[in-house]
Amino acid sequence: MTEELRAYGTGIVTEPPRRTVIVSSMASDSHTWNLVYLQLLVGELGFDVVNLGACVPDELLESECLSRRPAMLVLSSVNGHGHQDGLRVIQRIRALPELRALPVVIGGKLGVGGALTAEETAQLLLAGFDAVFDDQQGAGSFRRFAATLSAGVTQVEA
Question: Is residue 9 a part of any domain in this protein?
Answer without folding.
Answer: no
